[in-house]
Amino acid sequence: MMWVIIGGMTLILFFNRYLFLEPRLPIRLNRGVREFLGFAVPGMLTAICGPIIFVKDHALDLSPTNPYLLAGLCAIGLMLWSRNVLLSVASSVALFYLFRGWL
């Protein structure tokens, strides 16, 4: 039964993406919808990463010993300084493990 659910969800996800990515299909989104969908990725990343960075043991953790918070701040700083996504991600992951082992 589990494989049927996984296969069904795979098909739903594939056809959902295929409708918007196939250039020969006559589906075109207007400018307002495209701009609205542009906010989906940052909103989703915030919803996923926010609790990981700021919440520990069901409470807000803004202490300087929070390795997630320190690595997140370093990632923001590296991205603003270098404008290189690969460098920022690799460096902030390395810094996270350094902070986690050190703190």
Give the topology, please.
Elements: H1 2-21, H2 31-37, H3 40-54, E1 55-56, E2 59-60, H4 67-82, H5 85-102
Structure description:
By secondary structure, the protein is mainly alpha-helical. The protein has two domains: 38 residues, no CATH class; 58 residues, no CATH class. Helices cover 74% and strands 4% of the residues. It contains five helices and two strands; from the N terminus they run H-H-H-E-E-H-H. A hairpin with a 2-residue loop joins strand 1 and strand 2.
Stretches with pLDDT under 50, minimum 5 residues = none
Q: Per DSSP, what share of the residues sits in E-state strands of 2 or more residues?
A: under 5%
Helix content: over 70%
Mean pLDDT: 90
Q: What is the alpha-carbon Rg in Å?
A: 19 Å
Protein name: Branched-chain amino acid ABC transporter
InterPro entries: Brnchd-chn_aa_trnsp_AzlD
Keywords: Membrane, Transmembrane, Transmembrane helix
Organism: Pseudomonas taetrolens
Compact summary:
Keywords: Membrane, Transmembrane, Transmembrane helix. Helices cover 74% and strands 4% of the residues. It has 103 residues and is mainly alpha-helical.
